[in-house]
Amino acid sequence: MGADVSKPTENSTPIALGKLILLKRIGVNMHTTRWVLVALVLVATLGSPGIGTAAADGDCSFPVTRTDATGTDVTISEDPDEVVTLGPSAAQTMYEIGAWDDVIGVSTNADYLPGFDERTTVGSGFGDAAVENTIELDPDLVLVPDIISDDTVSDLRAAGLTVYNFEAATSLDDVVAKTRLTGELVGACGDADDRADTMDRRLGIIDDAVADVERPGVLYTFAGGYTVNENTFIHDVLETAGGDNVAADAGDPAYYIISNEVVINRDPSWIVLNSRGADGTTVPAQYEGTTAYREGNAAVLDVDELNQPAPRSVDAVLDLVRTLHPGVYENEIADRLDAGALGSERGTAVERLPDGTTSLQASNLGRTRTVGFDLPARENATAQMRRVNVTLSTLNPTFELRLREGDRSAPNGTRALESVRLSGNGIFAADVDYLTLRLAVNGSRLGDADPDTVTLYRANATGWTPLQTTRVAETNGTLVYEARTTGFSALTLAVDEPRSGESTDNLTGTATATATATATATATATPEPTPAESTTPTGTPTPGSAPGFGPLIALVAILLTIVAERRR
Length: 568
Fold this sequence. Notes:
This protein has helices spanning 14-25, 30-46, 88-96, 127-137, 150-158, 172-186, 189-209, 233-240, 260-266, 291-295, 303-306, 313-324, 326-333, 550-567, and strands at 64-67, 73-76, 83-85, 103-107, 120-123, 141-144, 163-165, 217-220, 226-228, 244-245, 255-257, 270-274, 298-301, 347-352, 358-363, 370-374, 383-392, 399-405, 414-425, 432-442, 455-459, 464-467, 469-475, 478-485, 490-496. With 568 residues, the protein is an alpha/beta fold. α5 links the parallel β6 (141-144) and β7 (163-165). It is globular.
């Protein structure tokens, strides 16, 4: 199962949710209802045995005890330093509340998060492999989504690990509460509360804006005909965005296959697809008889925002509002959003993050197809990225690119001048037609190397692919180059080492482990009925990386060269 979606389970606050349903039925608006629910949840929490509250200033206190989905009172005696997340929603939440540094193990479907490849992959989260790999890491805490089997939870606990199994999220309010709860469990209460408060503010703004709109019928379809009923947080995403989920009461369980006949009969005006399986913005042919098909109304949302009960689900709501009610979004929502990931600011920004990552942010750009980012110059740099132009193949008005320093690995016979890892947040390889990269090189640092051999290389599964690189300018000893690439990967700007004689360079045979880096933004999380593990390709170790083997490898290389010359 690729996605982190929730199976129908008993909610942790049934009294509060029951009162919420009653409020909706008697006509109380959603903005008021949301704040009433918050109060009800607080009452329910304070009145529950074994449940404490965080300090008023947001600081966490330990030990902390919370009852999880299995009915187990889970006690965390002290602030956990090492955490394993067995689902992408838990990983995303840890990232969004500033606790990402504590995560040492992740499931494969968290591969869209920056820094995924720096953590141990424990598998898909299902089966014996995930259990064995998690036990081997010996974490202080394991965070488990509700889709993981009770047997897996039991096996982990039998090994002596502390495991918290989350309840199913059946609404966006549940997602907000889960964000706060995660902060309590991992010692990040303040940041978690801040993130949850932002989610609540944005949801309140949206509720007010769409309160009186005419709601078009919408259908979310994925994984070969699956959809969602009203007992899911994804249903709440559709409804909160001002849509009417035509599949809300058409079947059980929470995630089920809906027949084409039912869809055509209910005639949705919009088909919602996720970014994993979408064929552009085309309405699937089986819905030919619907208004959505006739008018070409398909909305494609980021799968890692839409399918995961985590903080970015609010971003999915905002993206859907933009599509269903563009005038309402522009006039009543955009200017009221707080400055942040999807702030009210329109345009681009470049920010140097504390960990050295350069964040390239595009916010609310409308129907712009080409987005440019100018990067500040760094003093005394041998080479540096100076501009990134993104030419979009699909409309994506708000996204982020991240540039992280690479490890200066390069093809054999070349010298690395600059190495970066390019990843995306809220943008996928399918969204990008191509990226044009402008790089500046300090000519004095080239030494005897030929400046015409400066080339940008893109990492692939086995080594490096040279990209067409053109020198476009030279000013005061600074050489400026341009290259074009598609998708996201590790990139290295390198120059041929000066040498005499015939070159025996092999671009695809000498890559280091970094050369296998793949795009972190091409997420694969989609709810599917059958669990499926995927493996992440690993790189070829650099010669000499293992102690004592450097001379041996060098000797073997010499012998192979002699043999090759004799054959010639």
